[in-house]
Structures are given as C-alpha cells and as structure tokens.
Amino acid sequence: MRLLALVVRNLSRRPFRTLLYVSTAMVASFLFTVLVSVPASMSSITRDAGNELRVIVTAPNAYMLPLWYCDAIRKMPGVIAASSSLQWGAVYRDPRDVIIGFGVDPDVVKVYPEGHVSPEAVRRLINERRAAMVGKVLMEKNQWHLGEPISLKNTDSRFTLSLIPVAVLEARRDQNALVFRRELLDEAIKKAYGFNTADRASFIVARVDKVSDVPKVIEEIDSKFHNSEYETSTITQNDAIVSGLSAVADLGTIVASLCAVVIITVLLILGNAIAIGLRERISEVAVIRALGFEGAQVAAILFGEVAAMALIGGVAGSVMAIALFGKGITLGAVLSGVGYMQVTSGGAIGGILATFAVSAISAIIPITQAIAITPALAFRKVT
What we know:
Order of helices and strands: HHEEHEEHHEHEEEHEEHEHHHHEEHH
Strand content: 15-25%
Distance between the termini: 33 Å
Helix content: 55-70%
Number of domains: 2
Oligomer: single chain
Number of strands: 13
Structural class: alpha+beta
Strand order of the largest sheet: 3-4-8-5-7-6
Number of helices: 14
C-alpha cells in the first residue's frame, strides 16, 4: 500500500507530464483498436457468410444476365430456390457516399429463409412496391426510421426512388445492405433512359438443397450456359463475399502493415518519452535510494507509474473507439456494399493490452539503467 501511495503521489505531482504520457497511450490504444477492427470485421462477415448452400451466378463478360436464366436455374436438380437481383448505385445526401442497393424479386425470401426479420416485414416487402429492408449500420448512419419514407437519387441524379424501410437487417453480412422490390427500379430506369431491365439481372442467387450438391449445381449452371452469348461464372456465396472484400487488394495485409507501423512508432515515442522522463528524475531516484528503498522497490514504483498511465490511456482510447465505432460504420461502395467496420469489446480489450505491453516493454531498459546508478553517482550526474 505504501508503494501504491507513492505511485499515486508521483503521478499527481507533475500533472502535465502525466497528461502527456496518458495522451500518448490513449492515441496508441485508439489507433490500434480501430485499425485491428477493420480486418476483424471483414473476417466476421466472411465467417457468417460461410453457408455454402447458396451460390452466386454472374456474367463475367457481360453487364447483366437474361432473367430467364433464373427460371432455368430454379428447375435444376438440387436447387431449392433462385432469385434475381438488380444492383443499383444510389445517393442519399453526399454524392461521394454511394449506397449499393439491390432490387429483388419475391423469391428472395425462399433463398434467404433465415433473414431474421418478422413475417409481417416479409409480407410487406412482397406486397408493397415501396417497401425496403435496410442494414442496421446503414440505417443508423443515415438516421433513417422504420415507416418513414426515404428518397434516394441515382448517381447521375436522373431519377429518384422513394422507399419505406419496413425492417432492419441484423445479420453481419447485411449490415450495409439495402434491399427493395425491383419493379420500382425497372420502371425508373426505363423512364429515365429508355432501357428495359425487367428481363435482366445483375446476378442470380440460388439456394441448394445439400452441401454435397453445391459442386454439381455449380458445374451444371456453368455447363448449361457455356458457349452462349451470356456465359456464367458461378461461385459460392462465401467466395463471392470474399471476392468483394478483396476489391481493394489485400485489405488484411494493408491494415496489418499499418498496425505494425503504428505500434512501432508508438513504441519509439513511448520509449523516448519514458527515457527522457526518467533521465530528468535521476535526482528523485537518488533521493529514494538514499532514504533506504531497495532497487526492486524503486523499480516497482516506476513500473507502477508506467502501468497506471498505460492503463488509463489504454482504457480511454478503447472507450473512445467503441463510442465512435461500436455500432459500426459503413465502408461504402468500395467493397460492393458488403463491407463495414465495427469495434467490438474484444478489439477494445486488445487495444488496452497492446498499449500496456508496449509501455511496459518500453520502460524496462530506462528503469533498469536508473536503478543501477548508485545514489552518489546519481547526484553527481545531475549536478
């Protein structure tokens, strides 16, 4: 208890110095927590999308697929249901912030039976032209509310759609999603551009009966449309999401590299700050040693100060990260409407532990050097 009291007194004796140390630790914890949360969120999305019972059909050499492909796929052995989707880039307020929406047909409910939405919301999506389902992150970001109409413009402002959110999508893969009936979009595109999309699909999602049937269904789909005007490329839902998340190159490697740079930089900053601080306090260490404190006790006091500042700063930085990003933020259209980032309690704890570890390691050498100096030499060093 006596050592703890000395730690508290030393921290309060130079409040400005303590504040600087704590602020450095806080920034380090905040940056670490946020940066690590990006690849962690991406991994979480791909894990949740690991249901291999769904396959995604696209046309690699064409902009869209013929809609009749959906009917043909639906009749294939092993396929339970199939649904077409028309992808749309929309703008709410900021033209730079594109929202990726998907116009779907009613069979989407059969393809995604585990949508975690109420039967009433499903009924409204099927029967009401303006009904929409919105991901939780997208909903909170734009401060939308269930039952209140929202107006979204096309990216070139040629037309506007008015939609009414009827349900919030809770699944991780859907946090940034906007799903609505495609008839409204088909009509708006035809009116604005004279182009008929009612018989076209950006992609088709098929639900397979058994995991063992997935490879056969993929082969059957691609074989059926091989050498046609619109050849297909069919992959599992998980592979499709991973492909979308890798649209900005190897995101995990990039963020991991940034984290490494941040940690190394903070290590150098903290190490330098602690070394300078201890060098300035050589006389204090000498006085404490002259009063009869053993080297281990002095080391415990100094390590206690470092630990206290690291914990205070680490907790403050992680709490700040959770406050800002705990509910999640959308990563926009750059990740095909799939990506979002959310700081979790696990990431926050990791930030605190990383800050504490970096601070403790940084303190080892300067504290060892400080307690190795005898009181007489320490006073002479100061003078």
